[in-house]
Amino acid sequence: MTDKNIEIPALLTKLEIQLKALISKRKLKNPLMIGIHSGGVWVAEQLHQRLNIQEPLALMDISFYRDDFSQLHLHPQVKPSQLPAHMEGRDIILIDDVFYTGRTIRAALNEIFDYGRPNQVIFGVLIERDGRQIPLQPDCAGCTITLPVGQRIKLTGPNPLGIHIQSFSTEKTVA
Amino acid sequence: MKKILISNGHIIDPANNTDHTGNVYIADGKILAVNEQITDFSADLTIDATHNIVCPGFIDLSVRLRDPGQSYKGTILSETTAAASAGVTSLCLPPDTSPVIDTQAVTELIADKSEKANYPQVYPIGALTHKLAGTELSSMSALKQAGCIAVSNATSPLSNLLVLRRAMEYASSHNLLVMLHPDTPSLSNHGCAHEGAFATRYGLPGIPEASESIAVAQYLELAELTGCRLHFSQISSKRSAIKIQQAKKYGLKVSADVAIHQLHLTEDDIEPFNSSYHVLPPFRTKKDKQSLRESLANGTIDIICSDHQPHDLDAKLGAFPETEPGISSLETLLPLTLQLVQDNAITLSQGIAALTQNPAKTLGIQSGTLTQGLAADLCIFDPSLSWAVNNDTWKSAGRNTPFWGQTLKGRVTHTLQAGKVIYTL
Amino acid sequence: MTNLQLNKEGKLKHFLTIEGLSKEILTEILDTAESFASMSEQKVKKVPLLRGKTIVNLFFENSTRTRTTFELAATRLSADVLSMNIATSATSKGESLLDTIHNLEAMHVDMFVVRHAISGAGHFIAQHTAPHISVINAGDGQHAHPTQAMLDMYTIRQHKQDFSQLKVAIIGDILHSRVARSQIQALNTLGAKEIRVIAPKTLLPSHVETLGVQAFNSIDEGLVDVDVIIMLRLQKERMTSALLPSEREYFKCFGLTENRLKLAKKDAIVMHPGPINRGVEIESSIADGPQSVILQQVSNGIAVRMAIMSLTLQNNTETL
Predict the structure, then answer these.
(1) C77 in the same domain as C192
(2) Same domain, residue pair C213 and C243
(3) What is the pLDDT of residue A174?
(4) Cβ contacts of C38 on chain A, cutoff 8 Å
(5) Which CATH number goes with the domain that contains C173?
(6) Same structural domain, C72 and C138
(7) What whole-number distance in Å separates Cα of residue B147 and Cα of residue B104?
(8) C135 and C179: one domain?
(9) Using the beta-carbon criterion (under 8 Å), do B317 and C94 form an inter-chain contact?
(10) What single DSSP character describes residue A131?
(11) Distance from B387 to chain C by nearest Cα, in Å?
(12) Could you give the CA distance from residue B175 to residue C148 in angstroms, rounded to a whole number?
């Protein structure tokens, strides 16, 4: 249980800069920012402020869209997604805390598309780590790191935000 | 006919007050001597019965052979084979065969089939009413002539008391024993379990004890009115036992039997929705079981029977109330009776009497005893031999018993019918 | 029977009766239902949890409302649903029941939701169906209606939170009610303080106290101080089978009127599994009144059934 020397404010700033650039380059109009429960929401709250997004922050819980439904158990504390009714044709900024295997973003995209066809989606994470299993990747990342097999990195919060690296014996893909 | 010596067995013959170790000598199909040492008896066959019990062959008042008519459940051959292995040397066949035993022809057919199956001592019980419909009398005289030992309406309803009265009078005038299942159809109302805590919990239509005891009261009154010899088939409740006890005290010539499984199982033992426990009358409460045991001990209930009802697989496959009631019970008759002795509910002698002397007395036949000159119907059993109830040991075509897979104690080693060995373990 | 409903790890695989299920399992169902509850307010009312699964509604007894809620629950989980109404006669044998099941199994289904007129039908099917199939009892004879009981518990929890303080009265034809039996079991498992059944003697089963209830023949006595009132539906056949003289007399003696409602706690909730017989069991004004949660029961029914379906299928890890 060691905390790597990662400065969260620095990561947030780096992510903010990248997103700002991409928003401009891709000409996002009145974008909707969506944070993925639970770590992604904390990060999104920060970015929502920093980027001065007009549209209220939306939240998403991807539990029902997971692909490992039969291996894990339905977590009773599933919070329902709070997404606006109209997603059709919108520009979306999707935010998560850690990008790992790619399964979370796969589930999140499925859920978004069930709501309607967005115009475009850009995806930002605070930390991108190695271990991708699905051919997806973030558009923006606060930092990119490698971790030895058997270690997992998690954001703790909401106040203060912190990084938590955990070792565990069985590889269970989560993010 | 063979000369047989059964040596050194523990002989129990309640009718003759015999209860000690000794020899039994058989010749020409009859009992030659019991206990007396016969010096120049050159036996063709000697059965060493050391450590075993030697007693009269069992007389079972209710054994459904399912023949004629329901051969997918059992045949005279398969079920008499099971009977022989169970130590039963005489059995009564209830009239609800198909066709019903309400004609001479059917009665003779049964005798014929039994003969062919090498088990001649099948006593058909004739129908009390034509087709068991409860409305017209059957030809009881003809049935008696053809060989029926008693008359009964099996489990078919007898709602009309006037018809019942007349049937009892008529039977009585031909000196026929009337065997009745006490039940009041309007109260039992298609129930499938005892009306009590278990039926309530599992939402099963219940049969109150009153359904049985009301019928007992009615039949007792009619027996007194008509002078008919009455026997109650398969009592299940304390209330019924009390009435029968009172009637006997009062001087009525009435007898009663209980199915062996009613002396062991109650509604508390039923595995929910397990159709092996679906029987009629249903398994009732601990109080009833206690009363049945006491009644057996004090003579209120005279006889134990198997109430053997073998079934095909489909009959027991379904939601509990939709399955057919009944247990295949010949082969568990002995070990379960011995268990009663083990439980100190009755003595071994009482148990054997309930299976031999008493049924013989009720039926009015010269049997159920090891008396010199009478047919040599014997059962030799090992009371301490444990055996598992499974495909290897079971003989009946019906495997429908809640005791399936259990290990029981007490097994027949030899059965002799009219001096002929019809079963060896 | 406990074994029949649970898989090797003690997790719910079939849902046949409340009996034998722990408080933990019941609570898990309620909690899971909560996460599905808000879905009906979303624009997209579907989640892909059971996509690719085939659920068969086997209704041997007619019921539009229960069947449609199960259909809706399955559809919202993205499962494929097949609804079958099968007429049965009183002499229907186990054979045809089994044959029906086996024929459907051959079409590679994953779940049976069964409603049947005979007690024990759900158990029988669960015992004889292929191991990878889960069975949910949508009501068997007079024995059990566990999904109804769970949605009732969910509704109670929404309003009362703590079962251990609750006095619950169930009023009506307890004798014939599978709903009542399941409700009583659930309330006892969840630790309800007091459960009262109120009915004329003819409508109370023998030895009813053994179920863990107190029996009352007077509604005025039984309603005093209760927190939850559950009304049961009175069926017309009860009058013709000599169980009751008339609906009028029943209403006079056992109907929930405004006056009688005052005997209960001020914030008592009024429930009914439906469909309601207005003026027979309950005054219209109460059914539509502020204390009635009857309509909530209906919408809760979908979330609860979604929870039960997804939990049992998720726990059934046996493969075809």
Answers:
(1) no
(2) yes
(3) 45
(4) 80
(5) 3.40.50.1370
(6) yes
(7) 8
(8) no
(9) yes
(10) -
(11) 28
(12) 61
Tens digits of per-residue pLDDT, B88-101?
Answer: 999 999 999 999 99
Flag whether residue B288 sits within 8 Å of chain C, measured between CB atoms. Answer: no
- Is any Cβ of chain C less than 8 angstroms from the Cβ of B272? yes
Whether B269 is catalytic is: no
Strand partners, C55: C81, C111
Q: What is the pLDDT of residues B19-55, one digit of tens each?
A: 999 999 999 999 999 988 888 889 999 999 999 999 9
Nearest Cα residue in chain B from C141: B203
Identify the chains in contact with B, defined as 3+ C-beta pairs within 8 A: C
Q: Flag residues of chain C having pLDDT under 70.
A: 1-2, 87-95, 318-320
Chain-chain contact of B320 with C120 (C-beta, under 8 angstroms): yes
Please report residues of C whose CB lies closer than 8 A to that of A77: 31, 35
Q: What is the pLDDT of residue C91?
A: 36
B298 touches B372 (CB < 8 A): no
Per-residue model confidence (pLDDT) at position A171: 46
Regarding whether C9 and C126 lie in a shared domain, the answer is: yes
Question: Does the domain formed by A8-65+88-167 have CATH 3.40.50.2020?
Answer: yes
What's the mean pLDDT when you consider all of chain A?
86
**Per-residue CA distances from B355 to B79, B134, B359, C170, C286 (Å):** 18, 30, 6, 51, 66
- Whether residue B203 and residue C206 make contact (CB cut-off 8 A), yes or no, is no
Judge whether A89 is closer than 8 Å to chain C, CB to CB: no
Does C167 share its domain with C292?
yes
* Cβ(B302)–Cβ(C101) below 8 Å: no
Residue of B nearest to C91 (CA): B322
**Cross-chain CB nearest to A80 (options C31, C35, C317):** C35
What are the sequence ranges of the domains in chain A?
A: 8-65+88-167
Nearest to C111 by CA among C314, C301, C299, C298: C314
Closest residue to C35, CB basis, from A78, A83, A110: A78
Report CB contact under 8 Å: C140, B321. Answer: no
Beta pairing class for B150-152 and B122-127: parallel
Q: Do B203 and C144 touch (CB under 8 A)?
A: yes
Give the total number of structural domains in chain C.
2
Q: What is the 3-state secondary structure (H, E, C) of B260-311?
A: HHHHCCCHHHCCCCCHHHCCCCCCCCHHHHHHHHHHHHHCCCCEEECCECCC
Range of the domain at C101: 2-144+299-315
C181 & C282 share domain? yes
Residue of B60, B307, B312, B377 marked catalytic: B307
Question: Does residue C128 share a domain with residue C150?
Answer: no
The pLDDT value recorded for residue B25 is 95
Instruction: For chain B, list residues with pLDDT below 50.
Output: none
Q: What is the pLDDT of residues C46-98, one digit of tens each?
A: 888 898 999 999 998 888 889 999 999 999 999 999 988 776 543 344 457 78
The whole-angstrom separation of Cα C185 and Cα C137 is 15
A113 touches chain C (CB under 8 A): no
- Say if the Cβ atoms of A69 and C49 lie within 8 Å: yes
Predicted model pTM = 0.89
The stretches in chain A having pLDDT less than 70 are 1-6, 69-77, 169-175
Distances (CA, A) of C112 to C13, C16, C19, C136: 12, 11, 20, 6
Confidence (pLDDT) at C63? 85
Q: Which domains, ranges and CATH numbers included, belong to chain B? A: 3-54+374-384+406-424 (2.30.40.10), 57-363 (3.20.20.140)
ipTM above 0.85, yes or no: yes
